[in-house]
Automatic annotation (TrEMBL):
<keyword id="KW-0547">Nucleotide-binding</keyword>
<dbReference type="InterPro" id="IPR012795">
    <property type="entry name" value="tRNA_Ile_lys_synt_N"/>
</dbReference>
<feature type="domain" description="tRNA(Ile)-lysidine/2-thiocytidine synthase N-terminal">
    <location>
        <begin position="17"/>
        <end position="189"/>
    </location>
</feature>
<dbReference type="Pfam" id="PF01171">
    <property type="entry name" value="ATP_bind_3"/>
</dbReference>
<feature type="binding site">
    <location>
        <begin position="21"/>
        <end position="26"/>
    </location>
    <ligand>
        <name>ATP</name>
    </ligand>
</feature>
<keyword id="KW-0963">Cytoplasm</keyword>
<protein>
    <recommendedName>
        <fullName>tRNA(Ile)-lysidine synthase</fullName>
        <ecNumber>6.3.4.19</ecNumber>
    </recommendedName>
</protein>
<dbReference type="InterPro" id="IPR014729">
    <property type="entry name" value="Rossmann-like_a/b/a_fold"/>
</dbReference>
<keyword id="KW-0819">tRNA processing</keyword>
<dbReference type="InterPro" id="IPR012094">
    <property type="entry name" value="tRNA_Ile_lys_synt"/>
</dbReference>
<keyword id="KW-0436">Ligase</keyword>
<comment type="similarity">
    <text>Belongs to the tRNA(Ile)-lysidine synthase family.</text>
</comment>
<comment type="function">
    <text>Ligates lysine onto the cytidine present at position 34 of the AUA codon-specific tRNA(Ile) that contains the anticodon CAU, in an ATP-dependent manner. Cytidine is converted to lysidine, thus changing the amino acid specificity of the tRNA from methionine to isoleucine.</text>
</comment>
<keyword id="KW-0067">ATP-binding</keyword>
<dbReference type="InterPro" id="IPR011063">
    <property type="entry name" value="TilS/TtcA_N"/>
</dbReference>
Length: 393
């Protein structure tokens, strides 16, 4: 576990979180984790997509308790039709992140193993991914307010199952893991050991390349980009390159995914425009180069001002300052009486800041507007612009 640390001390206030589906891999990880530390807490997500899922989640929680592990079942609300696997994964991670924060966990262990990694790399190679994709899943990655840690990434699944058998423990076989409708399942069943070896070679080579590209990107950004606490970036002319723009679009939009290479190239050659929920245009009164600002048309609508709620994937309201009947939404029209010039902000950055609304009126400005804002909002964009990967170090 040293390779994927550093770890907080093993204390009750900061347990390590375990994502346990109830399948063999994650149950084996839970069993091993309990031997490694006293203070762990398991989260079992019930996607509520199959009738048996609630009973399975309860059974898994019981199995974990028998191992001496505190287990909590997180039941997901129904989600819309279409892109089922992707939606389920996103909703699962959101629920897991929320539960980790509540339980005081900084780290969440998931049980992806060597074969999962082979399949990921193989599928990405087929989809024409560059080094960033071919480098596969990271052993350590930041996601929102937690670290996702994959300690089993170098272990074949047989080892995990053998651990459970040796301990005399049972697990659940999810029927969707056999459903050949899903591309991953087909590769899981069909990849030969030679193909898996190829995938591992591509992965290692891509990881080395990705690391060095990440370092270069960090250097260029340090020299040419200025991040402003109101959620926008000024990028000097030397820094205007495809990879910097792609990374900054992801940062400013609060989204987890970068836009495609082709779209970024087209934007860079146009010199201005919108992409991925971000507007890029000449920096004007702020100097040479361009500014990247959240696109007003793309911001999320009003959300109820509940404790810790994330708005627009970018801003989180501080709990005790939010009135129960308030809503969080873009400042938008509420900005028209404010002097953006005096506040030293682009108008578009001002309009896309969060504000507290009630009955169509702004009742609280964000405290990033020094001197006039009173409502504490913290930047909570999901990923850092570089260095999100453990392999950077
Ligand atoms: N319903 C769930 N609840 C909690 N964690 C989950 C859930 N589904 C997946 N995970 C976590 O994400 C990891 C990867 O998910 P994936 O769907 O590939 O695993 P799985 O097929 O459920 O297998 P297993 O539980 O045997 O790892 C799991 O190992 C587990 O750590």
């Amino acid at each position: 576990m040293e390779n994927v640390g550093p770890w907080l001390p093993d204390v009750a206030e900061a347990p390590v979180g375990l994502a346990v589906s109830g399948g063999g891999d994650s149950l084996a990880l839970a069993w091993l984790a309990k031997r490694w530390r006293h203070h762990v807490v398991a989260f079992v997500v019930d996607h509520a997509l199959r009738v048996e899922s609630a009973a399975e989640a309860r059974l898994t929680a019981r199995r974990l308790q028998v191992m001496g592990i505190d287990a909590r079942v997180l039941k997901l609300a129904p989600f819309p039709e279409g892109r089922l696997q992707e939606r389920a994964r996103d909703a699962r991670f959101e629920a897991l992140e929320e539960a980790c924060v509540e339980a005081g966990c900084l780290d969440l262990l998931v049980a992806h193993h060597l074969h999962d990694q082979d399949e990921t790399v193989w599928m990405r190679q087929h989809a024409g991914s560059g080094p960033s994709g071919l480098a596969g899943m990271e052993a350590v990655a930041l996601r929102g307010r937690i670290r996702i840690v994959r300690p089993c990434l170098m272990l074949p699944p047989e080892r995990l199952r053998a651990t459970l058998r040796a301990a005399g423990l049972a697990w659940i076989e999810d029927p969707s893991n056999q459903n050949r409708r899903f591309e991953r399942v087909r590769w899981r069943q069909d990849l030969s050991s030679t193909q898996r070896d190829h995938a591992r070679e591509w992965q290692v080579a891509a990881q080395v390349l990705r690391c060095s590209e990440d370092r270069k990107l960090a250097r260029i950004l340090a020299e040419s980009a200025v991040w402003h606490s109101a959620g926008w970036v000024h990028l000097k002319p030397d820094g205007i390159k495809d990879n910097t723009i792609a990374a900054l679009i992801r940062l400013v939009s609060g989204q987890r995914y970068r836009p495609s290479r082709e779209q970024v190239q087209a934007l860079v050659s146009r010199g201005q425009g919108t992409l991925g929920g971000v507007m890029m245009r000449p920096a004007g009164r702020f100097g040479d180069g361009v500014m990247l600002v959240r696109e007003e048309r793309a911001v999320e609508g009003l959300v109820a001002a509940k404790a810790g709620v994330l708005w627009d994937g970018r801003w989180r309201g501080a709990a005790d300052a939010l009135p129960a009947d308030g809503m969080i939404g873009a400042l938008g029209e509420g900005a028209f009486q404010l002097d953006a010039r005096r506040l030293r902000l682009p108008v578009s950055a001002l309009r896309t800041l969060p504000a507290l609304w009630r009955n169509g009126q702004v009742i609280g400005l964000p405290d990033v507007l020094e001197g006039i804002g009173t409502v504490p909002f913290v930047w909570a964009g999901g990923v850092p612009v570089t260095g999100e990967r453990g392999s950077m170090t």
